[in-house]
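Sample pair:
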Amino acid sequence: MNNIFRADKVSLVTLGMTEDEVEDVFCSSYRGQTDDMASTDLVWKYYDADYMKLLEKNDSFDPGGIGDEDDFESAFEDSVALETTSFKYIEVTFAAAETEYGTGEKTVTGVLFDADRTRESNGRDEKDIESQTVLTAEVVLGTDSINVVYEIAYEDGSLFKGAPAYAWLAFDEVADEVGGQVTVEWYDPFGTLLTATATVVAA
C-alpha cells in the first residue's frame, strides 16, 4: 500500500464520497485490518505498518515458548510496546440512505486521521486545534434534533470531517423561533469541547 497516512492524502476523502471513490484516493482496494477495534462494512479502519508489525508479533506469541526469565522480559516488553507505541490511524465512516427501492449506495459521513495514536489512549488524548470550520449547524424547532457538520485540523497533523456523535444546546439556550440563533456544543473525537452558533429551522 502506498503511504496514505498523511494529512494531505486523507484530506482528499470528502463527505459524500462512495466506497469506490475512497479506494481511488487511497489507490488501493480496502482489505480490512482488524484487531480488538474491528472494522465493519460501514467503518473502514487503517493502521500504519509499524503498528501492524507489532500486532502480528503479539498475535503470534506462544506462551509455551517462554523458557527463562529473558524470554519473559522480552514478551513483556513486546506487550508494553503494543500498548504505548505511537502509530497513525485512519477511520472512514459510511452510511447508506434508504430509498424507495431499498438501501442506497454507501457514502462517506465521517473521516478521521489520527497522526499520533496509541492503543493505551485509544484516541482519547486531547489535541491542540489548528483550525476549525463549521459546515452546517442547525437545530430543528421544538425538538432535540441538532445537525452539526464540521472540519477540524490539529497541530500534530490529525484531522476530522463529519458530525459529532452527539450535540446539545448550551446552557439556557432555547430554540423557540425559526430563524433564531442558538449556541450548540459537542466534543471532538479527542475529547475537546467545541461550540458553534446554530440556526433554528422549521420541523
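The domain at 126-203 is CATH 2.60.40 (Immunoglobulin-like).
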